[in-house]
């Protein structure tokens, strides 16, 4: 499948280097930062390197085709940073240090140009039009579906349903599959580790179907208590809902093993991959997940787009959870017939530009050597853990051995909100609050905490700036 060949569209708001017009680049030139392993990764000048010639500002040139990009021979954070315009702005007169990736990731120029290019020269509704632009937009949309299927290791694009994000995808499963398959006395196992979006939808459907939500406790290190999990599984268990990576503790549970154990009891397993997909490769067939969900905005893609994977034999049994256009074959007042899945579960006009941006984001991320990215993030996490240990009164929450680069912490004598406000004055963005994971924090006797979450474009120098600012806060009294 190829995307259509349209006239070029000149972008506005971006100059030729990818820096937003009128935005100030980070001041000064920094020395080459060292990775946690001690190797240099190249100089950072405060402005991105010139864009490769292949990154044109045309439609569909800004909406990559349905194909894999060749991988870079190596990875450094500078290779990623040069593509992300917003990382070169200032906040409160200081270069931005973005450590709030768990909430949302920033977008490379390839994504920005893809979305802008679509709206500037390719905008049309999909599936229902006979004209050229409708056909072109449909081809781009379905190329995005194919790219998501390949990215997740799904067997077919028909196993991918687009949604607004992880939350909507979970609600879709709860309302379509859950209402039809849950009943009185059934159990839904949900670890205490989970984000609210993987708790509340199950509480709602459990109330309606008279099933019950059964929490699975955590160990002191923030890992799921696997003995308790095994004890709670039974023939009453209809569903296990768990995250592949925690947004508040960074914990990466043994999802494949937990799924296999659940399947012994004929339970289905939904995996929340919102925090996982940006950090390491995912293979839903290897996991044997029945459902897998993620959000684009945590994957360097636009907000308002995400996806649900489901096994085809399960998708075929799922009834519409919303009605309207796009999901029908014919409508009359006597009888309405529906389109096949995945369109059956995509009522109305989807976020077409979001899919175009998601395709661009997937191609951008997979263009890097992903094992090298994962290794770098692991080293950066270890560096950050060691560096933060030097801050008086700072207590890191969770210590599971297998985790992504999420650092949630408290500081003696300082409210998390004050910590975030102080760091913001230095241009450092972290999150403070309950992180939509109140049961997980309650496990540690907390109601709120500060969180620094790292991504492939963060550097050891930024960690050093975080530590230095926190030390100044402690010294301020």
From TrEMBL:
Name of the protein: cysteine desulfurase
Cite the InterPro entries for this sequence. Answer: Aminotrans_V_dom, Cys_dSase_SufS, PyrdxlP-dep_Trfase, PyrdxlP-dep_Trfase_major, PyrdxlP-dep_Trfase_small
User: What lineage does UniProt assign to this protein's organism?
Assistant: Bacteria, Bacillati, Actinomycetota, Actinomycetes, Kitasatosporales
Q: Where is the composition biased (Low complexity)?
A: 18-58
Q: Which cofactor does the UniProt annotation name?
A: pyridoxal 5'-phosphate
UniProt keyword list: Pyridoxal phosphate, Transferase
Top-rank taxon of the source lineage equals Bacteria
Q: Which family does it belong to?
A: Belongs to the class-V pyridoxal-phosphate-dependent aminotransferase family. Csd subfamily.
GO MF term (any one): pyridoxal phosphate binding
Signal sequence bounds:
none
GO biological process: one example? cysteine metabolic process
Residue ranges of the Aminotransferase class V domain?
Answer: 97-466
* TM annotation in the entry: none
Q: Which PANTHER family match?
A: CYSTEINE DESULFURASE (PTHR43586), CYSTEINE DESULFURASE 1, CHLOROPLASTIC (PTHR43586:SF8)
Catalytic reaction annotation: (sulfur carrier)-H + L-cysteine = (sulfur carrier)-SH + L-alanine
- Region of interest (Disordered), ranges: 18-78
- Which SUPFAM superfamilies does the annotation name? PLP-dependent transferases
Enzyme class, UniProt record, top EC level: transferase
What EC number(s) has UniProt assigned to this enzyme? 2.8.1.7
> Where in the sequence does UniProt note compositional bias of the Polar residues kind?
65-75
């Amino acid at each position: 499948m190829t995307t259509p060949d349209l006239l070029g569209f000149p972008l506005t708001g971006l100059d030729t280097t990818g820096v937003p017009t009128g935005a100030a680049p980070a001041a000064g030139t920094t020395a080459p930062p060292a990775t946690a392993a001690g190797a240099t990764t190249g100089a950072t000048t405060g402005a991105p390197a010139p864009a490769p010639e292949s990154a044109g500002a045309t439609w569909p040139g800004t909406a990559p085709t349905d194909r894999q990009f060749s991988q870079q021979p190596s990875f450094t954070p500078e290779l990623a940073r040069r593509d992300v315009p917003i990382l070169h702005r200032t906040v409160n007169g200081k270069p931005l240090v973005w450590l709030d990736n768990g909430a949302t990731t920033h977008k490379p120029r390839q994504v920005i140009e893809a979305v802008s290019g679509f709206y500037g020269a390719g905008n049309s509704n999909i599936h229902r039009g006979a004209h050229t632009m409708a056909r072109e937009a449909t081809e781009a949309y379905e190329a995005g579906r194919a790219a998501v299927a390949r990215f997740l290791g799904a067997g077919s694009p028909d196993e991918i349903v687009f949604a607004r994000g992880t939350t909507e995808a979970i609600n879709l499963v709860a309302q379509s599959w859950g209402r039809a398959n849950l009943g009185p006395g059934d159990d839904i196992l949900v670890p205490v580790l989970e984000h609210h979006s993987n708790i509340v939808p199950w509480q709602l459907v459990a109330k309606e179907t008279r099933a019950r939500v059964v929490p699975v406790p955590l160990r002191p290190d923030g890992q799921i208590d696997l003995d308790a999990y095994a004890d709670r599984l039974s023939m009453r268990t209809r569903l296990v809902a768990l995250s592949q990576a925690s947004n508040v503790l960074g914990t990466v549970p043994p999802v494949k093993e937990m799924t296999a154990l659940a399947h012994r009891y004929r339970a289905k397993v939904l995996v929340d991959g919102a925090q996982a997909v940006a950090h390491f490769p995912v293979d839903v067939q290897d996991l044997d997940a029945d459902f897998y969900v993620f959000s684009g905005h945590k994957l360097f893609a636009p907000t308002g787009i995400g996806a649900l994977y489901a096994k085809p034999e399960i998708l075929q049994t799922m009834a519409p959870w919303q009605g309207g256009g796009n999901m029908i074959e014919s409508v009359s007042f006597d009888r309405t017939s529906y389109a096949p899945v995945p369109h059956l579960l995509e009522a109305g006009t989807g976020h077409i530009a979001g899919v175009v941006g998601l395709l661009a984001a997937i191609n951008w991320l997979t263009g890097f050597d992903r094992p090298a990215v994962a290794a770098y993030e692991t080293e950066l996490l270890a560096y950050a853990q060691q560096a933060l240990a030097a801050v008086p009164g700072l207590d890191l929450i969770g210590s599971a051995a297998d985790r992504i680069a999420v650092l949630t912490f408290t500081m003696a004598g300082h409210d998390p909100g004050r910590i975030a406000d102080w760091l913001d004055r230095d241009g450092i963005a972290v999150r403070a609050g309950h992180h939509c994971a109140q049961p997980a924090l309650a496990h540690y006797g907390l109601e709120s905490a500060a969180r620094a979450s790292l991504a492939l474009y963060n550097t050891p120098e930024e960690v050093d700036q975080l530590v230095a600012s926190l030390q100044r806060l402690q010294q301020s009294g």
